Amino acid sequence: MTDQVLGHYRVLEKIGSGGMGEVYRARDDRLGRDVALKVLKSTLAHDQDRLHRFEQEARAAAALSHPNIVAVYDIGVHEGAPYIVTELLEGETLRQRLSSGPIPIRQAADYGAQIAQALAVAHEKHIVHRDLKPENLFLTKDGRIKILDFGIAKLTSLEVSDDSSITDLTTQTKSGAVLGTVAYMSPEQLRGKPVDHRSDIFSLGAILYEMLTGQRAFAGETEVDTMTAVLKEEPSDVPLVRQGIPESFEQIIRHCLEKEPEQRFQSARDLAFALSAVPGSTTARQAAFRLSSGKIRGRLIWLAVAVVIAIAGTYLGIHLRPVPPTYRRITFERGTIYSARFSPTDKSILYSASWNGRPADVYSTIGDSLMARSLGYTATQLLAVSPTNELAVALNIGNAPGRGAAAMLASAPSVGGAPREVLDNVSASDWSAQGQLAAVHYAQGHARLEFPIGKVLYQTVGWISDLRFSPQGDKIAFLDHPLPDDDRGSVRVIGLDGHAIASSEEWQSEQGLAWSAKGKEVWFSATQRGNNRAIWALSLSGAQREVLAAPGSLTLRDVSPDGRVIVTVDSERVAMEWTGADNNQVQDLSWFDWTIPKDVSNDGRKVLFEESSEPAGPHYSVGIRKTDGSPPIQLGEGSGGGLSPDGKWAASVYPGTPQRLILYPTGPGQPIQIPVPQLESINGGFARFLPDGKRVLFTGNEPGHRRRTFLIDVTGNNLRALTPEGSVASMPSPDGKFVVGADATPALKLYPAEGGEPRLVPAGPAGYFAAQWSAHGRSLYVYRPGEVPVSIYRLEVATGRMQLVRTIVPSDRAGVVAVAPVITNPDGSGFAYGYDQILSTLYVITGLH
After folding, report:
1. What mean pLDDT comes out for the span 722-749?
2. What's the chain's average pLDDT?
3. DSSP bridge pairs for 722
């Protein structure tokens, strides 16, 4: 095929071949880059169903953006043969590398962690590889490992030549139920049972074993022997001992290779986290193995050498190398953890969690064991634990405490019993050493840090979280978030008189804070980009340092006086889905892992969204995507707002400095910048066009004032307030006369666009948000944010009558804590919705400094 042109790809040379087809180096003449062009066998094209599935899987693979997954650029068909275009890699496959022997421990752990992190990204998008093996892993020249053939692996089968080894076979039934290479397949895959992400974890365990030992975990002379080994036998530990593999690494591998999926690591992120803690040195078991295989004289010589080495190693290890931290997993159920504290009076750990979709509850471990019991505080979040083991809790929070969500503060005994209500509209609290409560109290449009309750030490128009007294009791540290519904912000330390002591730089995402054991630093979890938080330390002089970074997102929960640390490893994503005429037509429209719907075009064919994950950058991204699942189009930086009536422009708020409105063309054209220097801040996500397309409404606040909604011409002129302070509005009616919104009360109100007193929507449905106006302007589509599942109603604005339109349930309910926002088009024929999915695991870490 050399010199042929496929689309705009000019074939340069053949670089490989296999059972799926042939691979060529090609030149992308349009973008001027070399790519890998894999031409699959033409037999695929004769099966239209398989060809359709190939296209679907290739689309899904193209949506995976991760440095350890080969990037998919394009697909097509040439002379009846499908082809796929990917990035061109330089290096060798893992199979080629293993031909020269085992891989060193540290490098194998690093490769394994890279693979696990990439699998975590794929699994969160509901993509399972199902054919992981050394042939599908590529080692690049810069030390990275990349997963190949996502999406293709389960649509193609390997033809076996006469000289093929049985362990190279790929088996597939006619129904497609069994796929994958026999030696690396999970037991459930071999049995033809349903396969999920845990099958990939089994395959990775087999690959890790082979990387460390140079031998396959499961092998036999015949296919049946190999399958029997996978189903019934355990890999030999002799090769692991011979190679001096640390026992902790061996335990990780065996946990991956459990026969039952429920007994394995339940997520790739958990596996990546465990691999990050693997020590690189050999253990005493290596010396023991060698001792047992030598002669008596050799034993004595080697024993003497071993003693000398051990003494020297111990001395050097103590004096020259820090002891690596150790990790102990505390929770094993599937769900979300909201807070955790060490008990000050015993060895137990108290935490609040929502398991398996149930409402949040408060649990306590039984001593230092892994057994836990419920304290019976249903729909309750733990906020703090006093020196005498009394609890501060938030009542009636449902199963999803939101960012800055206010609830009733109460005190409660740690052994269970009736809580005593203290103060309403509180989002955070902590106990002083004397047993007094400090609280973040929402009043008069501000979040107010009060201590004692009633005395304001600090306030903001945003929100405050993670309130903690210093061990000495003379300072309070907290996280200050200047924007509502955004967890960016800074760490602040103040005295009990309210004077500022220290503060950090602004972080894009920050959650979780505690004082260090001696009270000389404030430890917190944050990130400057994306959502994978690490643990950082802030000294009282303002110096910052990193304490711990690990795969996944860490949230610091507590630090004990003896230096033990509680963290949760959180796999959190905001996914976006579209459902058409009925709930059976669901399309995943997520881009990366934090995709928020903002508006739907009038014809229901496009969704404007905001992406605020790591690949989007510190100022987020605005994009637009067709509801048929076509690849998204990135419009620019910012927090998305709404589409213009003709669909040609998208309004956005730029959260950087200086803040401003940006209007992005959805087609050809240049962005329009609208600076608003008169305002102190602008809130992202609320910018909307009026029906005339000449004005934009958005939410912000003037210096020293509470937030409100403003109107401004697209030319940047005629800025004026639309709502009074403390009130916001975001959805203009089709005739442009009213904008629906709310104030401190939970009822919906209609604010006249040209000024005047607002009009209360009859019946005043408490706590409902507007998803859209109906086309005729007589009704609103409304929903209550955070509900799981969420119900959409048509509300008649004249009478207050409500009619159920749709109940929406995310396609994957595991770990879903909220469904919001919900957006629809004027005729209500389709709905775009986001859902917040958090899966947490609690760890105690010892040895952090």
Report:
1. 89
2. 84
3. none
Displacement of CA 10 from its chain's centroid (Å): 39
Binned at pLDDT 50, 70 and 90, residue 680 comes out as confident
**Mean per-residue pLDDT, 348-374:** 87
120: which 2 tokens?
Answer: 């975590």
Distance CA 708, CA 495 (A): 31
Q: Is the pLDDT of residue 769 over 70?
A: yes
Distance CA 595, CA 616 (A): 10
- In the chain, DSSP finds a helix count (H) and a strand count (E) of 11, 54
Distance CA(666)–CA(579), nearest Å, equals: 23
In this structure, which amino acid lies at residue 249? F
How many other CB atoms sit within 10 Å of the CB of residue 720? 9
Q: Which helix (H) or strand (E) holds 524?
A: strand 521-527
Indicate if the pLDDT at residue 684 is higher than 90. no
Q: Where are the beta strands (DSSP E) in 727-767?
A: 728-732, 738-742, 749-752, 759-760
Domains (ranges, CATH) in the chain? 1-88 (3.30.200.20), 92-279 (1.10.510.10), 284-320 (no CATH), 327-572 (2.130.10.150), 573-581+591-839 (2.120.10.30)
- The one-letter code for the residue type at 167 is T
- With a CB cutoff of 8 Å and minimum separation 6, the contacts of 179 are 130, 131, 153, 154, 157, 170, 171, 172, 189
* CA–CA dist 179, 157 (Å, integer): 8
Listed in sequence order, the DSSP H helices in 372-486 are none
Q: What is the mean pLDDT of residues 177-186?
A: 68
Could you give the CA distance from residue 182 to residue 191 in angstroms, rounded to a whole number? 11
Surface-to-core class of residue 418, CB atoms within 10 Å of its CB (0-12 exposed, 13-18 middle, 19+ buried)? exposed
pLDDT surpassing 80 at residue 732: yes
Cα angle at 466 between 465 and 468, to 5 degrees?
Answer: 130
441, amino acid identity: H
Residue 203: alpha-carbon gap to chain centroid = 23
Region label for 280, one of left (φ > 0), alpha (ψ between -120 and 50) or beta (otherwise): alpha
Secondary structure (3-state) at 275: helix
From the number of C-beta atoms within 10 Å of its C-beta (0-12, 13-18, 19+), residue 299 rates as middle
Contact yes or no for 697/714 (Cβ under 8 A): no
Q: Which of 99-103, 153-157, 569-573, 764-768 has the lowest mean pLDDT?
A: 153-157
Cis peptide before 789 (omega within 30 of 0): yes
